[in-house]
Amino acid sequence: xxxxxxxxxxxxxxxxxxxxxxxxxxxxxxxxxxxxxxxxxxxxxxxxxxxxxxxxxxxxxxxxxxxxxxxxxxxxxxxxxxxxxxxxxxxxxxxxxxxxxxxxxxxxxxx
Amino acid sequence: xxxxxxxxxxxxxxxxxxxxxxxxxxxxxxxxxxxxxxxxxxxxxxxxxxxxxxxxxxxxxxxxxxxxxxxxxxxxxxxxxxxxxxxxxxxxxxxxxxxxxxxxxxxxxxxxx
Lengths: 111, 113
What we know:
The complex is a heterodimer.
Chain A: E1 4-6, E2 9-13, E3 18-23, E4 30-36, E5 43-49, E6 54-57, E7 60-65, E8 70-75, E9 84-91, E10 100-101, E11 105-110
Parallel strand pairs in A: 2-11
Antiparallel strand pairs in A: 1-3, 3-8, 4-5, 4-9, 6-7, 7-8, 9-10, 9-11
Chain B: E1 4-6, E2 10-13, E3 19-25, E4 31-38, E5 42-49, E6 56-57, E7 64-70, E8 73-78, E9 87-94, E10 103-104, E11 108-112
Parallel strand pairs in B: 2-11
Antiparallel strand pairs in B: 1-3, 3-8, 4-5, 4-9, 5-6, 7-8, 9-10, 9-11
């Protein structure tokens, strides 16, 4: 049931764009996105509820395709501060935070 | 701001010892969770609790137990630590609604020798 994230790792130059995908084999109620910097706690970015909505957060946005059971995180004009590991967390039953996380995508932004 | 505090940043224990990992949150959240983080595997759910005295198994509960005697505190117990339990342990809390984010502690890096 663990969602699959792709790619596993990506290296960008400042200003470049990236897309991180999160795919589930099971129908989803919602998808959460978190970023974890090295040695720190994961930090919440955004939640996508079923309905195919797209949300934005500065130059980071995400979409949720309920039909494909997939969410994508879009990082636009990347900054050095975007470096870290990105995790998607899937909620199958609206169970108040009981998330199943993907294996993570390591993003490195170079000057 | 929600604060989730884990009592130890680093712990080193011997095989067979009983280990307690403590987690306290200060925002009156009903839900609390223990995750284990290993490279390439992401975060895996060990146990969670939706209320005091209540607990439910996550995906990898074997070798672990939990205790929630007070709303703000959720303890993870390794009854007899083994080397394959060497890992980073993350505690999190949230409100009880389905679209509430998780708030994580800084983690406890446990090494079992």
